[in-house]
Amino acid sequence: MLTKIVSGSVRNFLACQSRQLNNIRSLSAHGGADPNPGLAETKHGRKESEEDFDNRYLAWFNKPDIDSWELRKGINDLHGMDLIPEPKIIIAALEAARRLNDHSIAVRFLEALRWKSRFSKDIYPYLIQELRPTLNKLGISTPEELGYDKPELSIEDPFSK
């Protein structure tokens, strides 16, 4: 008796899973729902040009009704990629942070860009040079202006003498 109940439950479960899988396959085969509706790209998914990539993030950050979660998602997705975004994308993100009155995320984004560019010493000064007018217009400080580039409670190395 128990084996009939268990086998019937397993059969029902497998049939349900099979129907769901078939629905997903038919949607993707017929151009149905987008399998990746967010900003992050799949590993082997669609390929897009650099211009399309830039336009996608510019549209994301320039949304007039962007909220803090969406701003952080966009910045986090950018940070997770093996790239440093174009200055126009950074400017759009900084303007979105200013619209949300979130100075801290703007400074943390600049800190992350400095960290990502640590292997090529020319990139971060170039970014700051390109961003300087926007930073001044929006009243956003760089991590260096706030003293975040130096350790606060560092101890002098006793072995350096």
Structure keywords:
single chain; 161 residues; mainly alpha; Serine Threonine Protein Phosphatase 5, Tetratricopeptide repeat; 2 domains; 7 helices; Cytochrome c oxidase subunit 5A, mitochondrial; metal-binding; Cyt_c_oxidase_su5A/6; membrane; mitochondrion
Q: Could you write a compact summary of the structure shown?
A:
The protein is mainly α and 161 residues long.
Question: What layout of secondary structure does this protein have?
Answer:
Blueprint lengths: L1 H28 L20 H12 L6 H13 L6 H13 L3 H14 L6 H16 L4 H4 L15
Family: Belongs to the cytochrome c oxidase subunit 5A family.
Pathway: Energy metabolism; oxidative phosphorylation
InterPro entries: Cyt_c_oxidase_su5A/6, Cyt_c_oxidase_su5A/6_sf
